[in-house]
Design goal:
The structure is a single chain. This protein is an alpha+beta fold. It is built from 6 helices and 8 strands.
């Protein structure tokens, strides 16, 4: 049984992720690091209806009984914690961001808020997804330089010092992606209003 306050944070953020359409009912996962332990959503748990029994505590490294019930992407979470200063991770499947990831190697915001918060979101590709060593290595390496990245055709991984912070980047990413898509559907020329806009590509 996890700490009640931590459970409530998981529960509330999980519900927000689901009701705002950032993932399907059972898709995605999230975790926090507490000392040498990781608390992660169990595999198959519904994001919008999380119970206190839907979380698994497992060691930061090595094998233990928690691995059996933990998300299949525990290996990715472990690699991210090992390579970054993150204390929380959110992995979700935001629809518009996934759509953009299918045709570009980076998502560069065109709106003011997105430019300020995220600047650029890299898109990485792996052949073997969903908990592979290749995925763990590629995603964790990319997150050394960014707070959120996209895995092509799969979803995003976001880091933070808290679950709320990691969730905020996911929410911002999808808003950025919606604005890009809607502008492209509008078919009108972008009037550039930012100074040094080309620098975002080199972030």
């Amino acid at each position: 049984m996890i700490d009640q306050r931590l459970y409530e944070e998981f529960r509330d953020i999980g519900r927000d992720i689901f009701v705002t359409g950032l993932t399907s009912s059972h898709g995605g996962n999230m975790s926090v690091r507490v000392g040498d332990k990781i608390i992660i959503k169990r595999r198959g748990a519904q994001f919008g209806r999380l119970k206190d029994t839907d979380f698994v505590e497992t060691r930061f490294r090595g094998k233990d009984s928690g691995i059996i019930r933990a998300s299949t992407e525990l290996i990715v979470h472990r690699a991210i914690y090992q390579k970054t200063s993150a204390l929380a991770i959110v992995h979700a499947h935001p629809r518009t961001a996934i759509t953009l990831s299918l045709s570009r190697d980076e998502i560069i915001p065109i709106d003011n808020e997105g430019s300020y918060l995220l600047r650029k979101i890299p898109v990485v590709s792996v052949e073997m997804a969903s908990g592979s060593k290749e995925m763990a290595e590629t995603v964790s390496e990319a997150l050394r330089g960014y707070k959120i990245i996209m895995q092509r055709g799969h979803g995003c991984f976001s880091t933070g010092q808290t679950l709320e912070e990691a969730y905020a980047w996911v929410s911002a990413l999808e808003e950025v992606s919606d604005i890009i898509l809607e502008h492209e559907l509008l078919g009108e020329k972008l009037i550039e209003y930012r100074k040094h806009s080309d620098s975002y590509k080199n972030w």
